[in-house]
Amino acid sequence: MLDKNELATLLPGVDVKIPSEGDDVTKYISRWSNTRLSLPAAIITPVTETDIISTIHFTSARKEENLKVIPTGGGHGTFVPIDSRTLYLDLRNFKSIHLDEDAETVTFGGGVVSGEVLKYLGERGWYTSVPNSNAVGMVGYVLGGGSSPFNAVKGLAIDNLIMMRVITAGGVVVKVGPESVGEEADLFRALCGAGFGFGVVVQVTLKTWRVENLGMQEDKVWTRKLIFPPTAIRTAAGTFVKIQKPDDRMVVVLLLMRAPPSAPRPGAPMIMLNASFFGPVTDAEEAAVALFDESITSQAIVADTGAVSVSSMNDFSAPLDRHGDFKEFYSAWSPGLSAETIVTAFDRWLAFGDATPEAKAASFMVFAAKGTKAMLEHDPESQKFFPRPLRSRNVFVQAVPWWTAEKAEDSSRTWAAETMALVNAPQHDRLVEGNGLADRDRLTAHAANLSKGIDLSTTWATSQLKEIRRIKGIWDAGNLFWNPIVDGV
To answer: Is 348 within 8 Å of 422 (Cβ atoms)?
Structure first.
């Protein structure tokens, strides 16, 4: 066990906690999911960069203990194992956000979460690349590639990354960006889509844009929402498929979830089809004309058109941001889906819930359709580590098993893995038949949504995996920081 007095002397004024055996880990750590979470060796909440550097030196001096420094922001990295060898570095004090209107950039600290950036910028009439949740750590989001509702008009977060300030395994502070050269350029490339475990990122600068330039009425996002009963799944699925290659300014989401406890029928299956448009209302209505078809709306329980400010556009997902229980992300990027595939996925989701009461209430599925124009305009030479083949695929599918008792873990993961095989049927069938797959065809996932035991060849090509290991060896030869490729998931 680590010596708390020694750490307190090394880190004066820093909150240091060393759990006792048998303690409840959630007393110390609040994470979106309790999967892969057990008591760490210590929880350190640094106040300054010097505190982080001292922690790194402290850990490096104890190589025989094989400790891993794991920096954390929003706590959504369900695939990161927290255990007795972990020095849990809580960056909650690194909360600065600064908008530079002249440079058209926003700079934020390593402990900032997405909702804080969204609201800070939105209140000032600006926006940047953010995920569709307010609770995700912005650094982890960017390191995983940074997919957002603005993919089709602005590209990924890594395509708009100006600078990262990183504290390395040697305790040195470096700033890296698109203009970096030599080994620092390699580090920057790795941070663009494969950035876990290369150092402690304490600051990030992204491009930002004026909301008014989107041309939206009253600077609000146009929305159209349809909610269907289970009996209308074929209608909902067919409608999604019709618009799964949308206008670049529109994002279409089909969500399968169960009604919350406050609803008239708690636990009832819900099918929600939602479109958001970042542009003029007349263009929105034309792009989403299928969502006004009377033959479709007549089957909906709810059919609403509205508008929401950029600052609050993620508020709808707040119930899904709750910390605790056991959850994982399983995801895939697809060039398109058939209505039959979505219907089959719906039926399997229902059956999984009925067979697994511990996961019935909260497990959900998302089908999201976006344009690809701006994503394809960036990184034509595939220098970054968000695989190029994914940039050309319109549909993002995510299955989220959410279980409340550990005994449901195996069945939850089985359902999610089988769902990914369903939406990637051609690839799955070829593997089963022993025909193999080229790297390009194998790639379906991205780093932000890793899960326990995932085949990393679905996230990075063979050449990329080799290059990531090489760069890791340069910047963290002693493997001080946990890395999914070096340490496994």
So the answer is: yes
Q: Are 140 and 76 in contact (CB under 8 A)?
A: yes
Q: Are 199 and 481 in contact (CB under 8 A)?
A: yes
The amino acid sitting at 294 is E
- Closest Cα partner for 224 from 305, 309, 308? 305
Phi, psi at 210, each rounded to 5°: -75, 130
Lookup: tokens for 319: 């119930």
Whether the predicted model's global pTM rises above the 0.85 cut: yes
For the chain, percent helix, then strand, then coil, each to nearest 5? 40, 20, 40
- Angle, alpha carbons 21-27-28 (nearest 5°): 80
Question: CB within 8 A of 168, min separation 6: which ones?
Answer: 174, 198, 199, 475, 476
C-alpha to C-alpha distances, 200 to 82, 154, 183, 188, 375, nearest whole angstrom: 16, 27, 17, 13, 27
Measured in residues, the chain has a length of: 489
Q: Is the dihedral of CA 168, 172, 178, 180 positive or negative?
A: negative
pLDDT tens readout for residues 168-220? 999 999 999 999 999 999 999 999 999 999 999 999 999 999 999 999 999 99
Helix H segments across 207-303?
233-242, 281-287, 294-297
**Residue reference for tokens 């406890």:** 261
Give the closest residue to 36 by CA, choosing from 87, 69, 78, 85. Answer: 78
**Domains plus CATH for the chain?**
4-90 (3.30.43.10), 97-212 (3.30.465.10), 217-462 (3.40.462.20)
